[in-house]
Amino acid sequence: MAPVALALASSRRGPGGGVRPGAVPAGPRDCRRARGRRTGGVQASAGGLGLTSSGPLGRRRRALPGRRSAVDSLCQVTSTRGRPRRTPGSPTGLGSEQDILHAAGELFVTKGFGRTSTRAIAEGAGLQQASVYHWFGSKDEILLRLVLGTVLPSHRIADQLLASDAPGHVLLWALAYADAGLLHEDPQNLGVLYFEPALDGDQFSEFHDVRDSLHEAYRVLLERTTGEPATDVDVAMLVGLVENVITYRRRTRSPIPADTPARVADAALTLARVPDLLTDETRARGTEILAALDSPGPGSAG
Amino acid sequence: MAPVALALASSRRGPGGGVRPGAVPAGPRDCRRARGRRTGGVQASAGGLGLTSSGPLGRRRRALPGRRSAVDSLCQVTSTRGRPRRTPGSPTGLGSEQDILHAAGELFVTKGFGRTSTRAIAEGAGLQQASVYHWFGSKDEILLRLVLGTVLPSHRIADQLLASDAPGHVLLWALAYADAGLLHEDPQNLGVLYFEPALDGDQFSEFHDVRDSLHEAYRVLLERTTGEPATDVDVAMLVGLVENVITYRRRTRSPIPADTPARVADAALTLARVPDLLTDETRARGTEILAALDSPGPGSAG
């Protein structure tokens, strides 16, 4: 299934999948896009759908005024700042900030957020503890950056798909496929952090807003596909099907089958009860649309 | 939808839903059943299916020899043991052991396992810290009891459904409905603890064995429904659909719609791609079979 492999590979590299903590640092284009979203993108995309992030699935969180955005942090210049390293060389090869995120992700997922100290994160990153506080205000801020990294790429893809005039079922297949693919490929399976109780704090409202907005995109595409209103349960089951990739990986620990994202996307259309629309043509068009999202240029900033 | 309401109500009370930590203590019949499962039930049911708990979805965990079973602990006589209470009266009204489980569940879910001390658990339960160690060897042992309580009732129902000669699609609908119902009704939504990194330890193999066995029951019923072999991804998506109830509750925090379990059960048959079999008759038969599981008597010990 060549087109499927193509889309997965490209979604790992390009703006569709660029913000991968510990793997791919935010580049200038990611930052331009992320800033656009932060300063109006989330609200604008929600507003464009006639939705707000305090919709039925939302947690009714609001960003605190004056708080520094974690998306802004994604876009800091990272080359020259920081204290001397504790150990020479960057474990990720991407600099201190990414080393901290990578080490923290590993510890949060394997030991738990509550049992991970900033000292342990510093050690994992080969840095002094003070360097952690140079880059991040707190352990919470590191967690926020990590979980934002799990939803921003999918949110970015959803934004662009919603602007497309392709049929709903093609776009729904494409979103489920891309989203499941990103969760499938995340080296640390950071989605397990969605269950971290600390995420209930107001300091994580930015993450919940982006995630709610992504889920609302699923609702819109589901409704375009079926032509009928979708209930909260419908949307929850659809999202659950996609996010099950996180649980499936967590449960088995060994690599899950490579065709899982495609199976999830097929199942999304099955759940929508449009059996006649689940065809090779739908898959091919969905894959093509995703591949086109990656093409650089002024026209691609959705 | 009266039959649906009936089955849910009965699954909350009877042996189908009896082992609910902090809500319903294990009664003699629960213990007889649980012991039967512990001393051969899990292996027997897996063996009966030609499956082992180290199957494709399994984590290849084995119980440690000589370790006290948490199922045995479920069945201890709890009335007369323990130190004097720190505060008078049992918060749950069910005695010290259940008070500890209830307080621990609340803290693990809201603060996180890693950030909860046995001192805090004791305080929540209105007991001396020493009392916690009187009832449980460690915080891990409390966690084990809590997560076992989330899967044993569903596993018990699955065991009985597998022994039925009703059509596969009726039994698959019934299992998804009962399982989703139990997750829906769990007062503390303890399923969120499935993501706790501590569960990777060997001391939790009993939980993983029971859970794997439950998932294998889904596989068998899915295959009976479709008449075709089910892949790991098929089973994972089916389980993910049911366990999404946990995530959905976690995400919204407000009560989720009452018809969620029935919608999940319908979606399970939709995912199995048997649209002609998803009928009111299927739902009615599934509900009847579940109601019959609750009837007490010597014939009901599956």
TrEMBL record, chains A, B:
Signal peptide: none annotated. InterPro entries: Homeodomain-like_sf (IPR009057), HTH-type_TetR-like_transc_reg (IPR050109), HTH_TetR (IPR001647). SUPFAM superfamilies: Homeodomain-like. Keywords: DNA-binding. Residues 94-154 form the HTH tetR-type domain. GO terms for molecular function: DNA-binding transcription factor activity; transcription cis-regulatory region binding. Residues 9-97 are annotated as: Disordered. This is HTH tetR-type domain-containing protein.
